[in-house]
Design a protein that fits this description.
Chain A: Pathway: Cell wall biogenesis; peptidoglycan biosynthesis. Chain A: Keywords: Cell shape, Cell wall biogenesis/degradation, Glutamine amidotransferase, Hydrolase, Ligase, Peptidoglycan synthesis. The complex is a heterodimer. Chain A is of the alpha/beta class. In chain A, 29% of the residues lie in helices and 28% in strands. Chain A has one domain (5-239): Class I glutamine amidotransferase (GATase) domain (Rossmann fold). Chain A has a six-stranded mixed sheet, with helices on both faces. In chain A, α1 (22-34) packs across α6 (203-214). By secondary structure, chain B is α/β, with parallel strands linked by helices. Chain B folds into two domains: 10-280, Mur-like, catalytic domain (UDP-N-acetylmuramoyl-L-alanine:D-glutamate ligase, 3-Layer(aba) Sandwich); 292-410, Protein-Tyrosine Phosphatase, Chain A (Alpha-Beta Complex). Chain B has a nine-stranded mixed sheet, with helices on both faces. A six-stranded mixed sheet of chain B has the order 12-13-17-14-15-16, sandwiched between helices. The chains are: A alpha/beta, B alpha/beta.
């Protein structure tokens, strides 16, 4: 971060903004402003270059064809690689998560190269689509309370050796690999299947992204009572599906 | 037309009678109108019943993500100028409900039928409509519905080469993509506030350019067709360029758009726009929507909004601040169980309104409003929310099952 301004980049809202994942951008913005930060939000359409000087990049979920188009345009653009090289934080959801991996299966049923920013490979699941509330325990290294979210995907994502699972699910499917892992991360790049949006359900993950971007260990507290109330309700719902 | 020869075979007659008997039994048991269960039984006895019932009718089908129930009512009202009309006025819009509605209209000349988006192609094949009205397509219940673009693709393939006159909104690129495989399209500039499902060209995937009211794909040349009908403020402009005033009891821009599309539909059947628009004034609340009810000394206006596009249109018609607003959201099966779509709604438009939230998912609304930096109160139920508001008008906006809950509570 430079000149006291946090730059939040929302990648391709024209293609990857189908499942309310704009909410992740809104939560990051809101929680940064509550800490007195000056926030510049940049929405980058898929016919525009990805800026390389952002602090936090967010990518959402989308439908199958837009996912392929987004991957093609991000590969061609190359800006996100440079941003990660500059130390930027990236947080991705569902279709966006798959794009950050080495490859995924596109709408034509073909293997589509991703960006290789996360050591994961995604394939199409053979079973039923994973839809519903999810509850999981986030990797203890991150020191965060349980993960709650809503999943809605057909994809299955396998982790390679340099990606750590973001969480282990207690209820729900997550990565769909059968071993209970959900999402993946490395030092600065995060991916998850969780909608909800996930940062509205898990505001402390938003704070983690802020801390990494600001390179600080703690942030001033915020009044999180509505987030807490929602979390309690959704965690109970995941434990006792209808 | 109906008259000398009876269009129904003995089997079809039996199916109609059996369906009505089951519907009556269902009503007697207090399980709603019985139209869906009755239609199911009838279709089981005679799978071609829908086609047979439609045979003696001039059929219009109406489909869209938003506005199909209201538009069906507007068209039905206007078409009565030309002859008796049968319609699924209660909004049962899948094949069983449609069959049941048509079975009750033996003397009708016109059938005006609302159809669920996913069933449009099948119902069109069965009923061979004279006219199909396509109003808009946007994201709705993504945890269980088809992708929005896939729905447009399904319409496009299923309607290719249809003999029907397709009346379609030229301001919605997905609708234009769906309709442009049809040889006979009447384009209506009905407008569309929500744009976020059509930034990607449905034809080639290029990025859509949207200067002002126009739109086009910068890469493949797919572009907004020239309309022959248009909504212009409070008027409908007909193909001759004449402007006809819209007088509705229903509020909002979206209903004016519905009226414009309806006028274009009824013109297909020879009803002049001025006659059609005058008749549309008769339409009051449709299945409780837009109804103003007295409740605890307040005037509650009941507004149904099921998805981001619907909420956007609804915010544009509510009374200005300080009119209080009550928001109610559920996520039961019929609503879609994922509430993420709340984050596609711009709640900063409510700035200045006192806001109360209720419904099964009031806590999702609370977090959403907190992040939008709005003042709000979380209430246990409608009664408690209403008590927070001074006497006078309250705008109550709810999604599908939350709306049904409201109607039950206020006795509407």
């Amino acid at each position: 971060m430079s000149d006291n301004q946090l730059r939040v980049v929302w990648i391709y809202p024209d293609l990857l903004s189908t499942y309310g994942d704009q909410g992740n951008v809104l939560v990051v913005e809101r929680r940064a402003r509550q800490r007195g930060l000056d926030v510049a939000r940049l929405d980058v359409r898929s016919d525009q270059p990805i800026p390389t000087s952002g602090d936090i990049y967010l990518i959402g979920g989308g439908e199958d064809r837009p996912q392929r188009l987004a991957a093609e345009r991000l590969r061609r653009d190359g800006g996100l690689h440079r941003a990660v090289g500059n130390g930027a934080i990236v947080f991705s959801v569902c279709a966006g998560y798959q794009i950050l991996g080495h490859e995924f299966v596109n709408d034509l049923g073909q293997r589509e190269p991703g960006l290789g920013l996360l050591d994961v490979v995604s394939v199409r699941g053979e079973g039923a689509r994973c839809v519903g509330d999810v509850l999981g325990d986030i990797d203890p290294r991150l020191g965060l309370p349980p993960l709650t979210g809503f999943e809605n995907h057909q994809g299955v994502t396998h982790l390679g050796p340099t990606a750590r699972p973001l969480a282990q699910v207690r209820f729900g499917n997550g990565n769909g690999t059968g071993d209970g892992t959900e999402g993946a991360y490395n030092d600065t790049v995060f991916g998850t299947y969780m909608h909800g949006p996930v940062l509205a359900r898990n505001p402390l993950i938003a704070d983690l992204l802020l801390k990494l971007a600001l390179d600080v260990n703690a942030l001033p507290p915020t009044d999180d009572r509505w987030y807490e109330a929602l979390r309690t309700e959704r965690i109970a719902a995941a434990e006792q599906p209808a | 037309m109906a008259g000398n020869s009876d269009p129904l075979t003995p089997r079809a007659k039996l199916a109609v009678t059996a369906g009505k008997a089951v519907a009556a039994a269902s009503r007697a048991a207090g399980r709603g109108s019985g139209s869906v269960i009755g239609g199911r039984v009838a279709l089981k006895l005679d799978p071609d019943l829908l086609a047979r019932l439609a045979q003696h009718l001039d059929v219009t089908l109406v489909s869209a993500t938003n506005g199909k129930t209201t538009t069906t009512r507007l068209i039905a009202e206007a078409l009565k100028a030309a002859g008796p009309v049968v319609s699924n006025a209660l909004g049962a819009n899948m094949p069983a409900g449609i069959t049941s509605a048509l079975a009750g209209g033996a003397d009708a000349r016109y059938g005006v039928i609302e159809v669920d988006e996913k069933y449009l192609v099948g119902v069109a094949q069965a009923t061979e409509p004279k006219c199909i009205a396509l109003l808009n397509l946007s994201r709705d219940q993504l945890d269980r519905a088809a992708e929005t673009r896939m729905l447009a693709e399904n319409w496009r393939e299923g309607l290719a080469g249809t003999k029907s006159v397709v009346v379609a909104n030229c301001d919605d690129p997905l609708v234009v993509w769906a309709a442009s495989s049809s040889p006979n399209v009447v384009w209506v500039a009905a407008g569309q506030m929500w744009k976020d499902d059509a930034w990607s060209c449905p034809s080639c995937g290029g990025v859509m350019q949207r200067p002002g009211d126009d739109w086009f794909c910068g890469e493949c040349g797919f572009r907004r067709p020239t309309p022959s009908w248009a909504l212009s403020g409070d008027h409908v402009i007909d193909p001759n360029g004449s402007a006809w005033p819209i007088h509705l009891q229903l509020p909002g821009r979206a209903n004016k758009a519905n009226a414009a599309s309806s006028a274009a539909v009824t013109a297909v059947f020879g009803v002049p726009p001025q006659v059609a628009l005058e008749r549309m004034y008769q339409v009051q609340a449709v299945a409780g929507r837009y109804d103003v009810v007295q409740f605890q000394n307040r005037d509650l206006r009941l507004l149904l909004a099921k998805n981001p596009a619907g909420w956007l249109e609804t915010f544009s018609l509510i009374d200005p601040p300080p009119t209080p607003v009550i928001l109610s959201v559920n996520a039961r099966g019929a609503d879609g169980t994922d509430t993420s779509w709340l984050w596609d709604v711009d709640y900063t438009r409510l700035t200045g309104h006192p806001i109360c939230v209720i419904g099964d998912r009031k806590l999702d609304l609370a977090v959403r409003l907190e992040v939008a930096n709005q003042q709000f109160q979380v209430c246990d139920n409608l009664d408690q929310a209403v008590q927070q508001c001074p006497p006078g008008r309250i705008e109550v906006i709810a999604n599908y099952t939350a709306f049904q809950d409201l109607r039950r509570r206020v006795g509407n």
